[in-house]
Amino acid sequence: xxxxxxxxxxxxxxxxxxxxxxxxxxxxxxxxxxxxxxxxxxxxxxxxxxxxxxxxxxxxxxxxxxxxxxxxxxxxxxxxxxxxxxxxxxxxxxxxxxxxxxxxx
Length: 105
Hints:
mainly alpha
């Protein structure tokens, strides 16, 4: 109830104030609107610039992501082969060579 009474009082005083000081109200609008336009335009330009930067970063990240994905798949396949105990002939040759160099030392 108090909020309703306070709201009605503020409404009545606001209407009386605009009528009594109409000239000052218009001057305040004339001073405030350009400032709001400048600040709004600056904010819009900043957000647009950040969006362009984000798109460039996303494109760059997308290119490297494909390479990383291929590398991860290759590593996973190698690990699966190791776990199964199945080595490809190339891997087996490399492992044999490592054993030979270890045994000669």
